[in-house]
Amino acid sequence: AIGIDLEKNKDLKPELIDRLKLSDSNPLTDWCLREAVIKLYNDKTYLYKEVPENTDHRIIDVFDGYTCVIASPQKIPDIKIIHLNENAL
Q1: Average confidence (pLDDT) over 17-42
Q2: Residues 6+ away with beta carbon under 8 Å from 79
Q3: 20 and 47 in contact (C-beta within 8 Å)?
Q4: In which element (H, E) is residue 39 found?
């Protein structure tokens, strides 16, 4: 079981950061983690509460300019992202 969220890098509004109590140091990564956990557990309330301690997560470098987080109730192994060249297909 996994949950994944991918967001284009952007500045979040200070009001949103305050209302959701997102990380001051990296609010977009915190947002992506919460979204991945929402998808993992199918529970929208995780937007407003802490991620369960038994949830592993990885920040994945997918594309420049994007933030991607994967969450799982199990340990996530190392992940290798392979970009396919559309011209080679």
Answers
A1: 96
A2: 58, 60, 70
A3: yes
A4: helix 27-41
